[in-house]
Design goal:
The complex is a heterodimer of chains A (117) and B (110). Chain A is mainly β and 117 residues long. Chain A is built from no helices and 11 strands.
Protein backbone atom coordinates (compact mmCIF):
# COMPACT_ATOMS: atom_id res chain seq x y z
CA UNK A 1 0.00 0.00 0.00
CA UNK A 2 1.12 3.57 -0.67
CA UNK A 3 3.35 5.16 1.96
CA UNK A 4 5.39 8.27 2.52
CA UNK A 5 9.08 7.43 2.56
CA UNK A 6 11.86 9.39 4.23
CA UNK A 7 15.62 9.10 4.05
CA UNK A 8 17.79 8.79 5.97
CA UNK A 9 16.05 7.18 8.92
CA UNK A 10 18.84 8.16 11.26
CA UNK A 11 21.51 10.83 10.91
CA UNK A 12 24.29 11.72 13.32
CA UNK A 13 26.40 14.71 12.41
CA UNK A 14 28.62 17.29 13.96
CA UNK A 15 27.74 20.88 14.62
CA UNK A 16 28.27 23.08 11.59
CA UNK A 17 27.69 20.35 9.02
CA UNK A 18 25.02 20.48 6.37
CA UNK A 19 22.12 18.04 6.71
CA UNK A 20 19.67 17.15 3.95
CA UNK A 21 16.55 15.12 4.61
CA UNK A 22 14.44 13.73 1.80
CA UNK A 23 10.82 12.78 1.51
CA UNK A 24 8.86 11.01 -1.19
CA UNK A 25 5.15 11.81 -0.83
CA UNK A 26 2.43 9.38 -1.78
CA UNK A 27 1.91 9.43 -5.52
CA UNK A 28 -0.89 11.80 -6.45
CA UNK A 29 -0.76 13.81 -3.24
CA UNK A 30 -0.32 17.52 -3.86
CA UNK A 31 0.42 18.77 -0.35
CA UNK A 32 3.58 18.09 1.65
CA UNK A 33 4.23 19.04 5.26
CA UNK A 34 7.45 19.09 7.29
CA UNK A 35 7.23 18.70 11.06
CA UNK A 36 9.76 18.56 13.86
CA UNK A 37 9.09 16.57 17.02
CA UNK A 38 10.94 16.97 20.31
CA UNK A 39 10.09 16.02 23.85
CA UNK A 40 10.04 19.64 24.94
CA UNK A 41 8.12 21.26 22.07
CA UNK A 42 6.04 18.38 20.81
CA UNK A 43 5.07 18.41 17.14
CA UNK A 44 5.87 21.66 15.34
CA UNK A 45 4.93 22.51 11.76
CA UNK A 46 7.97 23.83 9.91
CA UNK A 47 6.65 24.29 6.38
CA UNK A 48 4.19 23.02 3.86
CA UNK A 49 3.80 22.99 0.10
CA UNK A 50 0.81 22.78 -2.20
CA UNK A 51 1.44 21.75 -5.81
CA UNK A 52 5.18 22.22 -5.11
CA UNK A 53 4.76 25.88 -4.10
CA UNK A 54 5.56 26.87 -0.51
CA UNK A 55 2.38 28.02 1.24
CA UNK A 56 3.71 28.56 4.71
CA UNK A 57 7.20 28.31 6.14
CA UNK A 58 6.69 30.56 9.12
CA UNK A 59 7.62 27.78 11.53
CA UNK A 60 11.06 27.38 10.06
CA UNK A 61 14.20 29.23 11.22
CA UNK A 62 15.00 31.06 8.00
CA UNK A 63 18.66 31.61 8.60
CA UNK A 64 19.61 27.96 8.57
CA UNK A 65 16.65 25.92 7.30
CA UNK A 66 15.40 25.64 3.76
CA UNK A 67 12.70 23.46 2.23
CA UNK A 68 12.13 22.75 -1.45
CA UNK A 69 10.21 20.50 -3.81
CA UNK A 70 12.37 19.97 -6.90
CA UNK A 71 9.58 17.86 -8.37
CA UNK A 72 6.28 16.32 -7.35
CA UNK A 73 7.94 13.14 -6.07
CA UNK A 74 10.62 14.71 -3.88
CA UNK A 75 10.65 17.17 -0.99
CA UNK A 76 13.84 18.19 0.78
CA UNK A 77 14.59 19.86 4.10
CA UNK A 78 18.07 21.23 4.52
CA UNK A 79 19.84 22.58 7.58
CA UNK A 80 23.04 24.54 7.09
CA UNK A 81 24.85 24.90 9.41
CA UNK A 82 23.37 22.41 11.86
CA UNK A 83 23.36 23.03 15.61
CA UNK A 84 22.83 20.71 18.60
CA UNK A 85 19.42 22.30 19.24
CA UNK A 86 18.29 20.97 15.85
CA UNK A 87 18.40 17.43 17.24
CA UNK A 88 14.89 16.05 16.82
CA UNK A 89 12.79 13.69 14.74
CA UNK A 90 11.74 15.29 11.46
CA UNK A 91 8.54 14.04 9.88
CA UNK A 92 7.25 14.52 6.40
CA UNK A 93 3.54 14.07 5.70
CA UNK A 94 1.56 14.25 2.49
CA UNK A 95 -2.10 14.72 1.66
CA UNK A 96 -4.58 15.77 -0.99
CA UNK A 97 -6.10 19.20 -0.82
CA UNK A 98 -7.61 21.92 -2.96
CA UNK A 99 -6.92 25.61 -3.00
CA UNK A 100 -10.16 26.52 -1.27
CA UNK A 101 -10.42 23.84 1.36
CA UNK A 102 -8.44 22.23 4.06
CA UNK A 103 -6.21 19.35 3.25
CA UNK A 104 -7.89 16.11 4.13
CA UNK A 105 -6.04 13.40 5.99
CA UNK A 106 -2.28 13.69 6.35
CA UNK A 107 -0.17 10.57 5.92
CA UNK A 108 3.08 10.58 7.83
CA UNK A 109 6.42 9.10 6.95
CA UNK A 110 8.49 7.17 9.50
CA UNK A 111 10.67 10.19 10.31
CA UNK A 112 14.36 11.06 10.27
CA UNK A 113 16.02 11.04 13.67
CA UNK A 114 18.68 13.76 13.62
CA UNK A 115 21.38 14.03 16.24
CA UNK A 116 23.75 16.97 16.06
CA UNK A 117 26.79 16.60 18.29
CA UNK B 1 -7.39 31.37 16.28
CA UNK B 2 -7.15 27.62 15.96
CA UNK B 3 -5.85 25.34 18.69
CA UNK B 4 -6.25 21.93 20.26
CA UNK B 5 -6.03 21.05 23.93
CA UNK B 6 -5.86 17.46 25.09
CA UNK B 7 -5.47 15.91 28.48
CA UNK B 8 -1.99 15.42 29.77
CA UNK B 9 -0.64 11.98 30.29
CA UNK B 10 0.52 9.51 30.89
CA UNK B 11 -2.67 7.57 31.25
CA UNK B 12 -2.15 4.14 32.77
CA UNK B 13 -4.89 1.52 32.51
CA UNK B 14 -5.26 -2.19 32.99
CA UNK B 15 -6.15 -4.35 30.04
CA UNK B 16 -9.89 -4.34 29.25
CA UNK B 17 -10.46 -1.02 31.03
CA UNK B 18 -12.49 1.78 29.47
CA UNK B 19 -10.51 4.60 27.88
CA UNK B 20 -11.34 8.26 27.51
CA UNK B 21 -8.86 10.85 26.29
CA UNK B 22 -10.30 14.34 26.31
CA UNK B 23 -9.77 16.78 23.46
CA UNK B 24 -11.22 20.27 23.06
CA UNK B 25 -10.60 22.75 20.32
CA UNK B 26 -10.99 26.35 19.30
CA UNK B 27 -11.46 27.19 15.66
CA UNK B 28 -12.95 29.60 13.18
CA UNK B 29 -15.20 28.20 10.52
CA UNK B 30 -15.83 24.48 10.14
CA UNK B 31 -12.74 22.41 10.85
CA UNK B 32 -12.21 18.70 10.40
CA UNK B 33 -11.09 16.77 13.47
CA UNK B 34 -8.71 13.84 13.72
CA UNK B 35 -7.12 11.43 16.11
CA UNK B 36 -3.67 10.14 15.23
CA UNK B 37 -1.70 7.43 17.03
CA UNK B 38 2.08 7.15 17.27
CA UNK B 39 3.73 3.88 18.24
CA UNK B 40 7.33 3.95 19.53
CA UNK B 41 9.82 4.72 16.80
CA UNK B 42 7.17 5.33 14.16
CA UNK B 43 5.39 8.19 12.47
CA UNK B 44 1.85 9.27 13.24
CA UNK B 45 -0.94 7.14 11.80
CA UNK B 46 -4.49 8.26 11.25
CA UNK B 47 -6.80 6.54 13.72
CA UNK B 48 -10.10 8.20 12.89
CA UNK B 49 -11.61 11.45 11.70
CA UNK B 50 -14.82 13.45 11.52
CA UNK B 51 -15.48 16.23 9.07
CA UNK B 52 -18.65 17.88 10.40
CA UNK B 53 -20.64 18.34 13.57
CA UNK B 54 -22.27 15.21 15.06
CA UNK B 55 -20.18 12.92 12.86
CA UNK B 56 -18.73 9.94 14.66
CA UNK B 57 -15.36 8.58 13.59
CA UNK B 58 -14.52 5.01 14.47
CA UNK B 59 -11.72 2.53 13.85
CA UNK B 60 -10.28 -0.51 15.65
CA UNK B 61 -12.76 -0.14 18.50
CA UNK B 62 -11.95 3.55 19.04
CA UNK B 63 -14.65 6.20 18.63
CA UNK B 64 -14.89 9.97 18.79
CA UNK B 65 -17.87 12.25 18.13
CA UNK B 66 -17.53 15.78 16.75
CA UNK B 67 -19.41 17.93 19.28
CA UNK B 68 -19.71 21.49 18.09
CA UNK B 69 -21.74 22.66 21.10
CA UNK B 70 -18.96 21.65 23.49
CA UNK B 71 -16.10 22.04 20.96
CA UNK B 72 -14.91 18.57 21.86
CA UNK B 73 -13.71 15.41 20.17
CA UNK B 74 -13.04 12.95 22.99
CA UNK B 75 -11.50 9.58 22.14
CA UNK B 76 -13.07 6.48 23.69
CA UNK B 77 -12.55 2.74 23.64
CA UNK B 78 -14.58 0.24 25.59
CA UNK B 79 -11.84 -2.28 26.30
CA UNK B 80 -8.16 -1.43 25.80
CA UNK B 81 -5.43 -3.91 24.99
CA UNK B 82 -1.73 -3.88 25.74
CA UNK B 83 -1.16 -3.29 22.03
CA UNK B 84 -3.00 0.06 22.32
CA UNK B 85 -0.08 1.49 24.29
CA UNK B 86 1.05 4.50 22.27
CA UNK B 87 0.84 8.28 22.13
CA UNK B 88 -2.46 9.70 20.88
CA UNK B 89 -2.72 13.09 19.19
CA UNK B 90 -5.87 15.09 18.63
CA UNK B 91 -5.69 17.36 15.59
CA UNK B 92 -7.72 19.98 13.79
CA UNK B 93 -7.54 20.89 10.11
CA UNK B 94 -8.69 24.33 9.06
CA UNK B 95 -7.84 26.57 6.12
CA UNK B 96 -5.06 24.38 4.80
CA UNK B 97 -3.29 23.95 8.13
CA UNK B 98 -3.19 21.26 10.76
CA UNK B 99 -3.02 21.96 14.48
CA UNK B 100 -1.94 19.15 16.77
CA UNK B 101 -2.41 18.71 20.47
CA UNK B 102 0.55 17.90 22.67
CA UNK B 103 -0.18 14.18 22.71
CA UNK B 104 -1.36 11.82 25.46
CA UNK B 105 0.70 8.78 26.28
CA UNK B 106 -1.33 5.67 27.04
CA UNK B 107 0.18 2.75 28.94
CA UNK B 108 -1.90 -0.40 29.13
CA UNK B 109 -0.76 -3.02 31.64
CA UNK B 110 -1.59 -6.71 31.32
Amino acid sequence: DARVTQTPRDKVTEMGQEVTMRCQPILGHNTVFWYRQTMMQGLELLAYFRNRAPLDDSGMPKDRFSAEMPDATLATLKIQPSEPRDSAVYFCASGLGTSDSSTDTQYFGPGTRLTVL
Amino acid sequence: GNSVTQMEGPVTLSEEAFLTINCTYTATGYPSLFWYVQYPGEGLQLLLKATKADDKGSNKGFEATYRKETTSFHLEKGSVQVSDSAVYFCALANFNKFYFGSGTKLNVKP
